[in-house]
């Protein structure tokens, strides 16, 4: 299926590795020009080189910086001629006990996982509406659907973003102008972050990392971890011209791990 995205421009955050990279690669495969941003310049340039080699017909621009700062956002936005597609993505805050978190930890979580996406949405959606096309995909977490006790910072910040999006996405000035805003909620994906989480779990329990990983996979009906490529494919689908009637939704991609009906 032709997703109708060729020649569009996308700003993809946290795109040097993992799920963000998967989204950038999937969009580039559809002919989308991409501006990719992340804090690590070396990994970012390696990703850009790989995308250029695989898809020589698209333009790939890199912006190394912290998207959670005003300077980082300004640099990323200025590198993109027009933002037709915005993929918001930032690493989650660390796990822990809420009793150990102070105001500083809460503000950092809110800045990265709630306020930064809102600022980028604010900077781009009116231009999208004027042009009659726009897609915003926020990469949040399956923990928004089924909160995890040790991820209180993430639960709170990402749920705040989810509530904000639920109202904004339904504004007629956006939805009525073919601008959609949806959230993509990953479960367990085979990324560097997951490997670190599994390693930490192994160290805490005294088990081998392979045992911890096997136990985690066994709890997923699909019996495996997801891949960044298939996550990116779903992101590209949400950005397609065919998805103009889907907005304000939370799409859970977790191999069936969430046991609920709704």
From TrEMBL:
Domain of life: Bacteria
Segments forming a coiled coil: none
Pfam family, one: adh_short
Gene3D superfamilies to which the protein is assigned, alphabetical: NAD(P)-binding Rossmann-like Domain
Membership in a protein family: Belongs to the short-chain dehydrogenases/reductases (SDR) family.
Protein name, as recorded: 3-oxoacyl-[acyl-carrier protein] reductase
């Amino acid at each position: 299926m032709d997703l109708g995205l060729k020649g569009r421009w996308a700003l993809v955050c946290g795109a040097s590795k993992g799920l963000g990279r998967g989204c950038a690669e999937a969009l580039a495969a559809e002919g989308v020009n991409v501006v990719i941003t992340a804090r690590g310049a070396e990994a970012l340039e390696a990703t850009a080189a790989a995308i250029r080699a695989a898809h020589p017909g698209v333009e790939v621009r890199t912006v190394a910086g912290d998207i959670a700062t005003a300077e980082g956002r300004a640099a990323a936005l200025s590198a993109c001629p027009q933002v037709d597609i915005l993929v918001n993505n930032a690493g989650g805050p660390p796990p822990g006990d809420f009793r150990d978190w102070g105001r500083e930890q809460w503000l950092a979580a809110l800045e990265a996982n709630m306020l930064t996406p809102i600022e980028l949405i604010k900077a781009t959606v009116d231009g999208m509406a004027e042009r009659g096309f726009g897609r915003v995909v926020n990469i949040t977490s399956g923990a928004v659907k089924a909160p995890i006790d040790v991820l209180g910072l993430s639960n709170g910040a990402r749920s705040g973003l989810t509530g904000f999006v639920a109202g904004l996405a339904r504004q007629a000035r956006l939805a009525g102008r073919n601008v959609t805003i949806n959230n993509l909620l990953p479960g367990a994906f085979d990324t560097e972050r997951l490997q670190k989480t599994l390693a930490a779990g192994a160290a805490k329990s005294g088990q081998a990392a392979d045992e911890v990983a096997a136990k985690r996979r066994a709890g997923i009906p699909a019996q495996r971890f997801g891949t960044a490529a298939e996550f990116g494919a779903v992101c590209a689908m949400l950005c397609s011209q065919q998805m103009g009637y889907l907005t304000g939704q939370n799409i859970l991609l977790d191999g069936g791990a969430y046991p609920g009906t709704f």
